[in-house]
Amino acid sequence: LFYYFSRGRWAIMAGDGGSSENMLVGYIVLGIYILLLVGSGMLAAVVNWLFRKKDGSGGLMRNHFMAGTGLGPMVWFFTMASSLFSGYSVSGISSEAYGLGFVATRWIPAGIGLYCGFMFLAPRCYALSRQRGFMTLGGLIFERYLPPAGHPWCAHLLRLLAFGCLQLPIFTYLITQFQSIGKEVETFTNGGITSLTAVLVAAAVLWLNDIIGGMRAVAYSDVLQGFVLIAGSIIFLILQYTELGGLPTAWRYWSDPDNRQEPLVANMQLIPSEVSTVAYFDFLFKTTVAATMFPHLWQRLFCASSSSVVKNGLAAMNLTFFVVQFASMVIGWTAIAAFSDLELPTPSPFGSLLRLIAKNGPGQSFASALLLASGVCAMMSTADSSLLAFSTMWVQDFLRPYVWPSASEVAQMLFAKFMGFIALCIGIALAILSIRDGKPDLTGLFSLQNVTPIHVAPAVWLGMHWRGLRAEAVLTGMICGLGVTVGMVFSEKNVAYDRGLDRTENGLSTAWIGFCVNFFVTVTLGLILQFGPRVYPKLASLLTQEIHKRSIDIGPVHDPLIHPKYMVPFFLLLLFCIPFYREHDAPDTYVGSMASWAFTSLFLSGVLAIASAAVYMWVWRDYEPLPLPDLPETDPSSKGKALASEHEEDLAVSKLKENPTYGAAQVALTTAGTPKE
């Protein structure tokens, strides 16, 4: 706080922090914001200490990394939402809207598609995490593919491959958040605070909160940051209208045919080209699949206190995209007209517009500073989430299973904090290099962020619903898909490699192409291994028949959330958000201040958001996994019920007997602990 106050006074006297004392307000707001973040970390440390004294709180590790028995509705909603809204949501989207025009609308249907994707995963994965104590996605994958679903070495290889694939999104998240913080703060203060100073201050606060408060510190700060982010987005929608004339004024500049040759205006008048439309499709569906694998989102899912918290939170979260991300788009679109007479003063439309508004008086300066704080909120909340997920993964998926199985909780905590410090240092160094070199930009980093995690998706999406899927098929598909993607992304096939992007000449990304190979190989080999023994009985002898005490049997009951009567309309709504049905590169009409195709995309996204929220609220049914035969229940709310009634259990056993890839040992597991024992 002292730094920001003193820095503000110095910047004004030196003349490099703003043209008037109005800029001092910005320094004060940022200083108070940093102080509140540190306060939330200290509060979390106290709460952790109090819960450590209580029985049933889950021990030192679970208290620190999973908030003990879990987070309540409001805290969970804000920490999940704030973790998703990042530097992309503020700095990246506004820059993309400025440079690419209405193509930036792709972020809203992609975000809503992400939460529709969780319909396939949330009910089952949350219930299994409560039963088995999962902290990471790697633990879930490992136990799903233990024998009889495959040889033990396959389960280990799948966990290690998933662990490696999920490291990339963590580091790209750290780079983007620090890059955004440095760029936006330096732009707003006109160099009064350098990007290096902003990055180091942010890193210090993150490290402090991670050490003293863990998940609760992140969650409490996310509540603060979520309120500020949503309030700031609403305030900007008001300010851009009152101070800059809003979209109607900008529209008069965009829509004038005489201005089509002006920089950036063509993107506001023309329907996207064929390549841009293909890239729009690629972004939507790639994000829908890949982002469901991001580790910090899974850690949030696992630390909810009840299934109703998850259900209600996911239902409400879709609507937040229309507040936060749309406001960021408006920033970029407004900047096209606001800076039409000159080049953008800095690479950041967000910081440039805020500085322009701040010069109009103390009130505007305060509002601009609040908006900057809301942007920093989005960046900080995602960075601390990524850092916490990184530490947890290194303990749960590497240290405990392969290096030091008998490590005490204190040793695990020390190792986790050490790895978090290493990740923070690497993230800072890469962010500084990215700021210095100017590439990859935030859009490029997001495209690279999906390159590897998308290959973990078939293991989870298919594994949670395909009972007979074997580990050998999943492992082969993952290796083939990764090989295709990695081989293409660094080759001449990636025509945007020199700009830090992932795109082939037809608009598809190498990540999506590799994912299609992964999915095809997994499904094809999975069907062969499941039904092949009926045609070629000798194949059954090659498949493991043993049983592991921790293996997951998903059971015969299907989740109502993924019924085709919901999924088919959702898929069509998402598909028609893409302007493939329009004439490419043709002039478009306007609905209000928006191009017709962009308005249609956002309208269908809104329908999808409302429909998916309704399905979450009224169709969700809690999944009840089969009880572990030799372990006590870990969920205090669970009554130890079986997955289904006795009739359904008989059906499950009969289906297992018909499947030669499952032996009598699997049948024994299914009936263990029941009256049939």
Notes on the structure:
Helices cover 68% and strands 1% of the residues. The chain is an all-alpha fold. A two-stranded antiparallel ribbon has the order 1-2. A hairpin with a 2-residue loop joins β1 and β2. α6 runs parallel beside α15, α10 packs across α11 and α10 runs parallel beside α19. The protein is globular. The relative contact order is 0.15.
Please give the order of strands in the largest beta sheet.
1-2
* Count of β-strands: 2
* Assembly form of the protein: single chain
Specify the overall morphology.
globular
Low-confidence segments, ≥5 residues, pLDDT <50? Answer: 1-6, 8-20, 631-677
The largest sheet, given as strand count, sense and whether it forms a barrel, is: 2 strands, antiparallel
Radius of gyration computed on alpha carbons: 26 Å
Strand content is: under 5%
Mean pLDDT: 82
Brief overview, please?
54% of the residues are buried. This protein has 677 residues and is an all-alpha fold.
SSE topology:
Blueprint: H1 2-14, H2 22-52, H3 59-66, H4 73-84, H5 87-100, H6 107-117, H7 122-132, H8 137-144, H9 152-165, H10 167-188, H11 195-212, H12 214-244, H13 246-254, H14 266-269, H15 274-290, H16 295-302, H17 307-317, H18 321-338, H19 349-358, H20 362-403, H21 409-437, H22 442-449, H23 457-461, H24 471-489, H25 510-535, H26 538-542, H27 564-575, E1 590-591, E2 594-595, H28 596-619, H29 646-658, H30 664-671
Antiparallel strand pairs: 1-2
Helix pairs in contact: 1-2, 2-11, 2-12, 2-20, 4-12, 4-16, 4-17, 4-20, 5-10, 5-18, 5-20, 6-15, 6-18, 6-28, 8-9, 9-24, 10-11, 10-19, 10-20, 10-21, 10-22, 11-12, 11-20, 11-21, 12-13, 12-18, 12-20, 13-18, 16-20, 17-28, 19-20, 20-21, 24-25, 27-28, 29-30
